[in-house]
TrEMBL record:
The gene is ctaB. CDD domains: PT_UbiA_Cox10 (cd13957). It is an enzyme of class 2 (transferase). The lineage of its organism: Bacteria, Pseudomonadati, Pseudomonadota, Alphaproteobacteria, Rhodospirillales. This is Protoheme IX farnesyltransferase. It holds the Pfam family UbiA.
């Protein structure tokens, strides 16, 4: 793109509502919000339904705001990656300065509303999650180390802790386990994507694991993380956060996730990696859905362990 043309597009961009919604990364946000809702619903104690709605809104807006800032910062590499070149800033539909302002304002709004309406512990965790995603992952790690997803994945693991804190006002071992579940799920999820998008990342100069360490090493690490994740996913049952219904489902789903990783390990094509990436999203969604159902009296006919 010619620099003068690009500058004109940046300064003249007037995005519509759909472009600003796209800045929030709604598909990514949906899973984040669902895990945050799970943290709210499985936490001990009660919260007024209106405040539950406010807390979920704050988590959604905060996650979306961090996504918008990420798009602002990464607009140069987004322009050369096939997967991201259609984003609003790259296409000139939203000016970078407008996207940054949009993200910052929404981030501050979500944290302040969480603090004033719910509690400041949840607000502090929300602020930490946003800051971690923007400054630690996006600015510091993403372009410097193949461990970007491993460390940076912590940002996406905060929502259930935020939801838990919204109800209890604090952080506990049980909420840390929910954090750990997403933290360990993130590397195999994103590395499966990176395996069949490695050319994209290489072209953009992003040191994802397949680009730096190679596909074979990445496949082995995917398997390792799924093996570690399997027993961690059972901890909510062991700690009494959930009952046997969740535990049985977590064991079965974890076994399927490991099986996906084994298939990726022995598949030189991208087919198994694509299938694992798709299943990883379903895996996490089902885990948190069953966690909610297992805690809901009478829904599945099983009570959590005392």
């Amino acid at each position: 793109m010619d620099a003068s043309v690009g500058l004109a597009r940046e300064t003249a961009a007037k995005g519509d509502v759909r472009d600003y919604i796209a800045l929030l990364k709604p598909r990514v946000m949906s899973l984040v919000v669902f895990s945050g809702l799970a943290g709210l619903l499985v936490a001990p104690g009660t919260l007024h339904p209106l405040l539950i709605g406010v807390a979920v809104l704050c988590i959604a807006v905060g996650a979306g705001a961090a996504g918008a800032i990420n798009m602002w910062y990464d607009r140069d590499i987004d322009a050369v990656m096939e997967r991201t070149r259609g984003r609003p800033i790259v296409q000139g539909r939203v000016a970078p300065a407008d996207a940054l302002a949009f993200g910052v304002v929404l981030s501050l709004f979500s944290v302040m509303l969480m603090g004033l309406a719910v509690n400041w512990t949840a607000a502090a965790l929300l602020a930490l999650a946003n800051a971690f995603y923007v400054f630690v992952y996006t600015v510091w790690l993403k372009r410097r180390t193949p461990q970007n997803i491993v460390i940076g994945g912590a940002a996406g693991a905060f929502p259930p802790m935020i939801g838990w804190a919204a109800v209890t006002g604090g952080v506990s071992l049980e909420s840390l386990v929910l954090f750990l579940l997403i933290f360990l799920w993130t590397p195999p999820h994103f590395w499966a994507l990176a395996l069949y998008r490695s050319d994209d990342y290489a072209r953009a100069g992003v040191p994802m694991m397949p680009v730096v360490a190679g596909a074979d090493s990445t496949r082995r690490q995917i398997l390792l993380y799924t093996l570690v994740l399997l027993p961690v996913a059972l901890l909510p049952t062991i700690l009494g956060t959930a009952g046997w219904v969740y535990g049985a489902a977590a064991l079965a789903l974890g076994g399927l996730f490991v099986l996906c990783a084994v298939r990726v390990l022995h598949d030189e094509t991208h087919r198994a990696a694509k299938q694992m990436f798709a299943f990883s999203i379903l895996y996490l969604f089902l885990l948190f859905a069953l966690l909610i159902l297992d805690r809901a009296p009478g829904l599945l006919g099983a009570a959590p362990l005392a």
